[in-house]
Amino acid sequence: MINVWRPGGPARLLAADAARAVVLFTLSVVVASVDPRQRTFQVSWPTVLVAAIGCAALVRRRSHPLGVLAVTTVCGVAFQLLGVRYSPLVASPVLVSVYTVAVRTDRRTAWTAAALSAAVLVTAATMSATGSWLEPDTVAMLAWTALPVAVGEGVRSRRAYVMAVEERAEHAERTREQEARQRVAAERVRIARELHDIVAHHIALINAQAGVAVHLVDQRPEQILTALEDIRDTSRSALDELRVTVGLLRQSDDPVAPRDPMPGLAQVPALLASFERAGLSVSHTRRGDAGALDPAVDLAAFRIVQESLTNVRKHAGADHARLSLRYHRERLTITVEDDGSAGPRRPHPGAGHGLIGMRERAAALGGRLHAGPRPEGGFVVTAELPLRPGRSRAGPARDQRDGHDDSRTACR
User: Fold this and answer.
1) Average pLDDT over residues 291-298
2) Tens of pLDDT along 255-269?
3) What's the rounded Cα separation, in Å, for the pair 80 and 124?
4) Which residue has the higher pLDDT, 308 or 349?
5) DSSP code per residue over 147-174
6) Would strands 281-287 and 320-327 be described as parallel, antiparallel, or unpaired?
7) Taking CA 379 as the corner, what is the angle to CA 378 and CA 383, rounded to the nearest 5 degrees?
8) Which domains are delineated in the chain?
9) What's residue 377's pLDDT?
């Protein structure tokens, strides 16, 4: 919005009002000094004084519109009593004052002030020796007073409309900025979730494979090369996925952009093979027709499977897990469960970011996720994802009940 209160603005307005007052004073004195009947020009000093007072008051019309109108109206009455023929130029201070009141006040105040001013001037005209109610000049006086009110109303309405448009534009600009910041924050959370899942999964596998390699040094040293190759392949896969994910942070005009597709359920066999090499056997069952999944659902499903199996290998100490994918008409159900460790095993400490990330992924698609211990032992993660994101939004409220899991859940 344009700020009218710039440095020097009030001084310029005051100078402009003073210049207008001088012009109106000159015109008023000239017209008041002309006698149309005798075609003579004679300056009357009382007329000059009254015109000077009325025009000088206009300098303060912006700060005191009603007070200036009262002064100019009194000067108009004085013109009537001095026998000056009341014309629009003689009444110009009154007309300017009425216009200012209409612009700077509300409609009711403007019309009330204009009506009172006109009533005073018409009464003075009828009481003077030069006028009556039927005089054309007296009747025209009412029109002269109403005209500046109508013009001022139009100007004030126009200014209010322009101000409202500017305020709406400013509000829209602020809203766009807020939405942009929210989108940036959401994208940062999404990328952070991706990085967490990638790093946690591959580091857990590398740790398990390194443990296998240490064991093979003493037991079967001829297989140590295979274990080291598994570590190499896992680290390379981690670097590739990190490159794709971090590539999302590039600008659109950067010379290098990621071209590799994001992982999905099609990579589940390779994922299970990597866990198999790390010592975790996973039995995989699938029911229903998979069909073509939405990319967001495909990625979220893969990450949930990846994180769940990583938690099994990292926290549960189990050697076997079960993965079930069930395709229903409107949703995909993912179940990952284990029977726990046969012996005592202290879980790794953690902040529970893995479970938080999985819940956020499911909730973002309108699904839900439950994670907790099984009654018969072990742990189970169950996620329900809509096949068509956006149609189902019933999941997030239920997910809130899953936030109070036991200490084992918090470690995941």
Assistant:
1) 82
2) 444 445 567 888 888
3) 6
4) 308
5) HHHHHHHHHHHHHHHHHHHHHHHHHHHH
6) parallel
7) 155
8) 9-174 (no CATH), 264-412 (3.30.565.10)
9) 83
